[in-house]
Protein: Bacitracin ABC transporter ATP-binding protein
Amino acid sequence: METVIQTHQVCKTFKGTETIKNVNMNITKGEIYGFLGPNGAGKTTIMKMLLNLVKPSSGEIRVFNQPILPSSVEYLRRIGSIIEYPVFYDRLTAEANLEYHCEYIGYHNKNAIKEALKIVGLHGIEKKKIHEFSLGMKQRLGIARAIVTKPEILILDEPINGLDPIGIKDIRELLLTLKEKHGTTILISSHIVSEIESIADTIGIIHQGKLLTEVKMEDIRRQQTESLEAYFIKLIHGGERYA
Structure:
């Protein structure tokens, strides 16, 4: 399988403290990669480095088999993302926010905005201003913005935060559809281990800046009787590696 995201011995140091330590990740085309780890483990920092929002202190990042340099920007047109809490122009409508995003990316498809809003369950609120949105609605709009340009890769940092159970189910089904029908590669982090378990092909578990393991879900199911959540807890607290 073609590798579309790869990190090699990536480290990041903030104010003399090494927060990311020799991380080697390999994400193949068309898979859902579930990124798990406690708060502060380094998930968001790595995602920001993949998007060139944070520069690694050492190591190499390759996306679409091209090295990411400090000046690299063109590859970002092929990626949709949510990092931390999605931010919008609060006094503009949902439609206007997505129009600005498409214009910035250079993507021109008149039907894409309505289609994206419908997919995430926000059809009919195109003219509603963002300051009137609930947290869950903003989270859905963030996902709409991430998918509106039909990217080849989605990088989603805790995308189901603020969603009710129905919203979580809808997003789970959306991600599976994007993978199965469009071949979208998805990197997703979440604290809800059961949700990651239900959709991911590969799991990466990070703790204190170190990638403890990178393993296929099919291997976990085949070789272990415990759930992914039990395995995750054991790995984080016991420091064991998957064998």
The chain has a mean pLDDT of 90.
